[in-house]
Design goal:
Layout lengths: L6 H4 L4 H15 L3 H21 L3 E4 L13 E5 L6 H13 L4 E3 L2 E2 H4 L3 H11 L6 E2 L6 H14 L5 E5 L19 H10 L2 E6 L10 H6 L6 E5 L6 H4 L5 H29 L2
Parallel strand pairs: 1-8, 2-6, 2-7, 3-6, 4-5
Antiparallel strand pairs: 7-8
Helix pairs in contact: 3-4, 7-8, 8-11
């Protein structure tokens, strides 16, 4: 990657956040580490994720992953109900398709970048794939501008896959099917980088992650259904000028694709529970 944060953008981070970012940024910019981390993630990360979710989660439509254009990168866009959404999607993709892409997950800075434990979690469980950090503090939005530029540059490389939540934050609405609006940045990244965009909807994880391994061993009926759709066609939007109106159109279309997966999930859940 060529893009670098400005001094003003770096000033948005606290000292420990800057240290954590600098470390993870260096390894992800290296010419060799992402290629080395990818097979490790496809084996080690997959094993611990599946140990938690194998029998709790049922995938649907994941054969659509084979429809991507291999000459372009992949942007997985999913609703955001829990902190384990992207892990679960990626773990299952690794189980089904092996080592397919170098992975990156933009992650909230609190805990993952502002604590030493977050650093340990990032490096030990994902080999630095939780990158770049995102903040929801309105006083630090300059940093997010840089983070979105990083994502855009990552998605210019066909070897990369980025897991992204267009809603911008965890949706805590009691109704899991009431999605939040898509953020402008999602549309901007898609328009500038033109990746394959795959929509996913999932919901239903138990509250306590510590109970998952035990529940998983009991081999229950799935409590989470992950539904993936075919790549979204943005040809009309990509032909339009790259401005705010176009970015919002793309963000809205992205959320519409996720909403369509939500309707499929609702029907699947009703069928499984009868």
């Amino acid at each position: 990657m060529k893009i670098q944060p400005t001094s003003e953008q770096l000033a948005c981070l606290e000292p420990l956040e800057r240290f954590h970012f600098r470390l993870v940024d260096v390894i992800n910019r290296s010419s060799w580490f992402p290629d080395l981390a990818s097979p490790f993630n496809s084996v080690i990360s997959r094993l611990w994720v599946e140990a938690f979710i194998r029998h709790l989660v049922q995938d649907h439509g994941f054969e659509n992953f084979k429809l991507i254009d291999p000459s372009r990168s992949v942007l997985l866009v999913a609703n955001h109900r829990s902190f384990y959404d992207q892990y679960s999607i990626m773990g299952r993709l690794y189980t089904l398709y092996g080592n397919h892409h170098r992975i990156f997950f933009p992650i909230r800075s609190p805990f993952f970048y502002d604590s030493l434990l977050g650093l340990v979690v990032n490096l030990s469980l994902s080999f630095g794939a939780m990158y770049p950090p995102i903040t929801r503090d309105p006083r630090r939005m300059a940093w997010n501008n840089f983070a979105m530029e990083v994502l855009g540059e990552l998605l210019l490389d066909r070897r990369n896959l980025v897991g992204f939540h267009p809603e911008g934050k965890r949706n805590q609405n009691p109704d899991p099917y009431a999605l939040l609006p898509g953020k402008l940045g999602c549309g901007m990244v898609i328009h500038k980088s033109r990746p394959n965009v795959l929509p996913v909807f999932l919901q239903g994880f138990p509250r306590s992650v510590l109970s998952w391994p035990i529940e998983n061993l009991r081999k229950p009926r799935p409590v989470v259904h992950m539904v993936m759709g075919a790549p979204v066609d943005f040809s009309e939007e990509l032909a339009a000028p790259g401005d705010r109106r176009t970015y919002l159109r793309i963000a809205k279309k992205t959320m519409a694709a996720i909403a369509e997966m939500a309707e499929r999930e609702k029907a699947i859940r009703a069928e499984w529970e009868t």
